[in-house]
Amino acid sequence: MKRIYNTLFIVGFISLFMSSCNDWLDVRPSDEIKEEYLFETGNGYRTALNGIYRKLATFDLYGSNLSWGLIDGWGLVYNLAKAPDDGGGRAMKKMATFSFKHSELTPTTDAMWDAAWNIIANCNNLAQQVENEDTLLFYDRTHERDMIFAEAIALRAYMHFDLLRIYAPSMLMNPGERTFIPYVDKYPSYLSDRQTVSYCLQHVIDDLKKAQSILLSVDKSASFSMESRFIQNYNGESRFLGYRGYRMNYYAVTAELARVYLYAQKADEAYVEAKKIIDVVESKKWFASSTSSSGFNKGNMKMMEDIIFSLYSTDLTDWDQKINHLSDNPADEYNEHYLCLGDEMVNEFFGSEKSSDWRLIYQLEGKYYDTYYRTLKYNKQKEGTTYSKVNDEMIPMIRMSEVYYIAAEAIYKTNSDLAQKYLSSVKKGRGIKNVDYSQVTSEEEFINMIVSDARREFVGEGQTFFMYKRLKKNLQGMDGYNWKEAEAKEENMVLPLPDSESNI
Question: Do 78 and 472 touch, CB atoms closer than 8 A?
Answer without folding.
Answer: no
